[in-house]
Amino acid sequence: MPSETTEEEVSTRTCKNCPSRLTGPYCSVCGQRDFDFKQDWKSLLEEYVSSMFNFDGKVPRGIFCLLFKPGHNSREFLDGKRFSQIPPIRLYLFTSLLFFLFATNVDLIDGTDYGKSITEMIESVPKPTPEDSEMEAYLTSKFDDPRQFVNDFEDWLPKVALVAIPLFAIVTRLVFWRRNLIYIEHLIIAMHMISFYMMWRIISTFASLPIGLFSKPASELFIDISNFWIVIYPVFSFRRIFDLTWMKAIGASLVIEFCSLLLLAATVSGAIGIAFLLA
């Protein structure tokens, strides 16, 4: 049952976002609604929907913390400080929209036509001949229209990627099963982690462009440093979220990053498989 604040409790309850004494179901200081999102998921969903398109000062602050303070957003949210945070679903939807627009138009950004490259690779597949078996002819015929294949792949990749969030949450729950966090808390961590990756890839790519105008080696070094931050980000993030030692944080990150690579491969393979079936 929802755990709204009752009249008997208001005299002893305090707001989790700011330590002010509660005088009702909403904090009179910061405005955060008092409920336990672990039990009242419907109220959490209502809060997300109502703030989905309501941008304010918390957005730039939240994005800065997401990029440069690993685990801060997740830890604050799990501690009950929801009102001062960008709702994780809102953040994920916003960054995923930007990321897939960026990914499907990356050739306009760095001058490389990846779609054309994939098309040329598909066009290099030999055409079916009378000597081919029915299976070989069927498989080869799937690549008769390379551009349509690429378009189907780009259309389905964002949809298939949505599956990565619950799978990533399952991985973190298995790794940190002794922490007694419920599944929805791991979903929040997953959305923050994936949002960081997408946002960082976009910003680092655009930031490397002006550097490349002056020095190609400097631009490549900047990209290398940016990629290194992606690799070590989970170490700092998990250390802050789960209060781990450095060695445990590194070990957990290695396991989760390996599983993430498998999820990435499965996501791309799934999109390719769907594009192949639609071809």
Structure summarized in a few sentences:
The protein is an all-alpha fold and 279 residues long. The protein has helices spanning 41-50, 58-68, 72-78, 88-104, 106-110, 114-123, 134-141, 146-161, 164-175, 183-214, 216-242, 246-278.
Main sheet characteristics: none
Strand content: under 5%
Alpha-beta content class: mainly alpha
Number of helices: 12
Low-pLDDT regions: 108-114
String of helices and strands: HHHHHHHHHHHH
Distance between the termini: 49 Å
Strand tally: 0
Question: What overall form do the CA principal axes indicate?
Answer: globular
What is the arithmetic mean of pLDDT?
78
Radius of gyration: 23 Å
What percent of the residues sit in helical stretches (DSSP H or I)? 55-70%
Give a topology summary.
Blueprint: H1 41-50, H2 58-68, H3 72-78, H4 88-104, H5 106-110, H6 114-123, H7 134-141, H8 146-161, H9 164-175, H10 183-214, H11 216-242, H12 246-278
Helix pairs in contact: 3-10, 4-10, 6-8, 8-12, 9-10, 9-12, 10-11, 11-12
Structural write-up:
The chain has twelve helices and no strands. It has 279 residues and is an all-alpha fold. Helix 9 runs antiparallel to helix 12 and helix 10 packs antiparallel against helix 11 (216-242). The chain is globular, with a radius of gyration of 23 Å. The chain starts with 40 loop residues before the first helix and ends with a helix.
